[in-house]
Design brief:
Layout (H helix, E strand, L loop, with lengths): L9 H7 L25 H9 L13 H14 L3 E5 L2 H10 L7 E5 L4 H13 L3 E5 L4 H7 L4 E7 L11 H10 L3 E5 L4 H4 L9 E5 L13 E5 L1 H15 L5 H33 L4 E5 L9 H7 L6 E6 L2 H11 L4 E2 L9 E3 L11 H7 L5 E5 L5 H14 L2
Helix pairs in contact: 1-3, 1-10, 3-10, 4-5, 12-14
Bound molecules: pyridoxal-5'-phosphate.
């Protein structure tokens, strides 16, 4: 059901990988908007259900357009297998819940996207799964948190929104030493700038809603791992709980993958220039940008990431009022809690994405009243710099 495995470079795999061309010979991938599939005979239906004959059964299980998206993601990530989901959170939840059972223990970095943190801190304990959150930037904290029943490690790197970077290889080595597994949420790095599986992680998850779509159109997610783990742990969960991606969204994401390298390259280049500009401005107290020499984990960035980031974290002097004034004075950059879009977007995490955390928890993560997260889009870099400069002047 998939194209032959070839030794393609990422840019080629993102255009051709996983293509399943129909008899009509279409150039652009077909959108198979179907719930079900028909069988020539009752015997054929029986054989397909028994697994004796290949083919699709029902789109909650698998669908040709979704299959193309999964195969293309595998080609990019260097993963054996993948399952696409309706959103990034469906991917994170499935990856975590399918890795543990009641009585097990999860260790997670405390710097997590708010909903991921809710799954670990609030949802998992309801089902008898214990969780410990640590400052993930020091491997000693991970080691200290390990218990005899630790089965899973979970981290995001760079983190949302403060762009903290965790040493993935070190956490993976610790996981392997105790027979646990490591799940990495690689959304901020994108599949192009960091390869968690090569660094030793066992499972990688994405919110495809972000850079993979990249044009603000649809939600989606994906889980990538080895075939054995997916067959044994995810297969039945997907069939029976239904977090499946719609074929329409899979098609949109396939089109997004074709231009992913071009977009991420341009957005990262702009973000690097904007981060350097912001660091020079007297109204800005701090800029965190992987790729700058003053990033708190610059050494790890160099070791495990191949690019900077399309995102910048900054602290505006003057707290919430000054941060709001800067946001309101921007013209091109839009105020939105999304990221990875073609449009530049700015977020005030303390009052939006991370508002459910206590003030102390936010302070622990470095999210202050003046913290802003800037997702750099595809606009001309000079126009963006000009917009930010005029907003800083206007917000004074
Ligand atoms: C790091 C991270 N993981 C997961 C998600 C969830 O993705 P989705 O909105 O597609 O459910 C997000 C969304 O912002 C995110 O930033």
């Amino acid at each position: 059901m998939s194209s032959k495995k070839r030794n393609w470079k990422p840019q080629t795999a993102l255009v051709h990988g996983g293509t399943l061309r129909s008899g009509f010979g279409e150039t652009s991938e077909a959108m198979y908007l179907t719930q079900g599939y028909v069988y020539q005979t009752a015997q054929a239906a029986e054989a397909r259900f028994k697994g004796e004959e290949p083919g699709f059964i029902y789109s909650r299980y698998a669908n040709p357009t979704v299959d193309m998206f999964e195969k293309r993601m595998c080609a990019l990530e260097g993963a054996e297998d993948a399952r696409a989901t309706a959103s990034g959170m469906a991917a994170v939840t499935a990856a975590l819940l399918c890795s543990v059972k009641a009585g097990d223990h999860i260790v997670a970095a405390r710097a997590l996207f708010g909903s991921c943190r809710w799954v670990v801190e609030t949802l998992a304990p309801r089902y008898g799964i214990e969780a410990t959150l640590v400052d993930g930037t020091d491997i000693a904290n991970w080691e200290k948190a390990v218990r005899p029943n630790t089965k899973l490690f979970f981290l995001e790197s760079p983190t949302n929104p403060t762009l903290e970077v965790v040493d993935i290889a070190a956490v993976a080595a610790l996981a392997n030493s105790i027979g646990a597994r490591l799940v990495v949420d690689n959304v901020f790095a994108t599949p192009l700038q960091q390869k968690p599986l090569q660094l030793g992680a066992h499972i990688v998850v994405y919110s495809a809603t972000k850079h993979i779509d990249g044009q603000g159109r649809c939600l989606g997610g994906v889980i990538l791992s080895d075939k054995k783990w997916i067959d044994e742990n995810l297969h039945d969960y997907f069939r029976h709980t239904g977090p499946s991606l719609s074929p329409f969204n899979a098609w949109t994401l396939l089109k997004g993958l074709e231009t992913l390298p071009l977009r991420v390259r341009q957005q990262t280049e702009s973000a690097g220039k904007i981060a350097d500009f912001l660091a020079e401005q007297p109204q800005i107290a701090r800029v965190i940008y992987p790729g700058r020499a003053d990033h708190p984990q610059a050494e790890i960035v160099k070791k495990q990431m191949s690019g900077g980031s399309t995102l910048i974290c900054l602290d505006v002097k003057g707290g919430k009022q000054a941060a709001f004034a800067l946001q309101n004075a921007l013209d091109i950059v839009l105020i939105s809690n999304n990221l990875g879009d073609a449009k530049s977007l700015i977020t005030h995490p303390a009052t939006t994405t991370h508002k459910n955390l206590s003030e102390e928890a936010r302070a622990e993560l470095g999210i202050g009243p003046g913290t802003l997260r800037l997702s750099v889009g595809l606009e001309d870099t000079d126009d963006l710099l000009e917009d930010i400069a005029q907003a800083l002047k206007g917000a004074k």
